[in-house]
Design a protein that fits this description.
19% strand, TAT_signal, ABC-Purine-Binding, 376 residues, Rossmann fold, PnrA-like, 2 domains, elongated, BMP family ABC transporter substrate-binding protein, signal, disordered N terminus, single chain
């Protein structure tokens, strides 16, 4: 075979191979381009709303709640959306606010004052798909639960410091409204003081409001003029500590750390950390495990503490507070353990008997050492 013939034969074979390949290609079914699956819709954030009885800048009660609200946002990010309404009066105005918050699509509504109880019960019955939470109350419903902090534990620890620091043996308390919560705090403050100084007596002035700085100032001044040299309050502003600072006496912050409001007077602050409870509330709602009930959290749960104790408080008093705190945390210490007497000397708790929560929740008496008549 000549070279020309060989080249011709090779060309024929190549052409035949290309043709065969083309036929195969023509017979192959063309695959459609893959279509990307649509991204799942992002769930709507859980809307959580707060109603505060005072302004968020009160430095105390409402300020503590708002700090916890901010902690929620940091914890859950875009899974939730929070809002608040401040300075909501107790009564009819509260009912209107709760109804409006529920109508706006909030699925958790938190009312942060005792006087919100009846309005919240009423509105909860109208919005069954909303979870309502009421601070310091005692009435529940299928979609309403209550929560509280054991503020009396902070009051007792403050009392330990007060009993050791007083020079006049007279303590003063500016009190808000005469409900068991507040009376319990006055008594616990006194019991704490008596644990280190049996000579202590406590005087009380009631202002019949949670947040009223002018009245709180007037009450604090009256107590100081009457001989009290260490003050505590169960009101929501920093006015009592500021008055003590101005008049050269000592005092405590309440609900939040109030050191900055009266640095010369400040002995310590009995603070509430609502963060742990609010985180549980939101986590329960997101997981679908929220149920009604009642919660009462204290030192054990990280909800109550005495912080920023002054440098001039003796080491033995600080150690006593630390021991109380440790005992409350592990359950080895009880504040309300008999014998406990009322101011007339009547025994209310026998020796070694520990008060249960039902007893604590119904306190309507002064313990021995508290002066004056308890208002109706």
């Amino acid at each position: 075979m000549t070279d020309h013939s060989k080249r011709h034969w090779v060309q024929l074979v190549a052409l035949s191979t290309l043709a065969a390949a083309a036929l195969v290609a023509c017979g192959k079914k063309e695959e459609p381009a893959p279509v990307a699956a649509p991204a799942p819709a992002k769930p709507e954030p859980l809307k959580v709303a707060f109603a505060y009885v005072g302004p968020v800048g009160d430095g105390g009660w409402s300020f503590a709640h708002d700090n916890a609200r901010k902690a929620l946002e940091a914890e859950f990010g875009d899974k939730i959306q929070t809002s608040f309404v401040e300075s909501v009066p107790e009564g009819a105005d509260a009912e209107r606010v709760f109804r409006d918050l529920a109508a706006q699509g909030n699925k958790i509504v938190l009312g942060t004052s005792f006087g919100y109880m009846e309005p919240m019960i009423k509105v909860a019955a109208e919005f069954k798909d909303v979870k309502f939470e009421h601070a310091t109350g005692y009435k529940t419903a299928e979609n309403l639960r209550t929560y509280d902090s054991r503020t009396y534990e902070g009051a007792y620890m403050a009392g330990v410091i007060a009993g050791g620091m007083t020079k006049s043996n007279t303590l003063g308390v500016v009190a808000s409204v005469p409900i068991p919560e507040v009376i319990r705090n006055i008594n616990s403050f006194t019991l704490g003081a008596q644990s280190v100084n049996p000579k202590v007596k406590t005087r009380v002035v009631w202002v019949n409001n949670w947040f009223d700085p002018p009245k709180e100032t007037e009450a604090a001044t009256s107590l100081i003029n009457g001989g009290a040299d260490v003050l505590m309050q169960n009101t929501d502003s920093s006015a009592v500590l500021q008055t003590a600072d101005k008049l050269g006496k000592r005092g405590f912050g309440w609900d939040s750390d109030m050191t900055a409001y009266g640095p010369k007077a400040h002995l310590g602050s009995a603070v509430i950390n609502w963060g742990p409870y609010y985180k549980k509330t939101v986590a329960d709602a997101l997981a679908g495990s929220w149920t009604t009930g009642q919660a009462w959290w204290g030192v054990k749960e990280g909800a109550i503490d005495l912080v920023s104790i002054a440098d001039d408080v003796p080491a033995e008093l600080k150690q006593k507070v630390d021991a109380v705190k440790a005992g409350l945390k592990d359950g080895s210490f009880a504040i309300w353990k008999g014998p406990i007497l009322d101011q007339s000397g009547k025994e209310l708790l026998a020796k070694d008997v520990v008060a249960d929560d039902a007893f604590l929740g119904g306190i309507k008496f002064y313990v021995k050492g508290v002066e004056g008549k308890l208002p109706n």
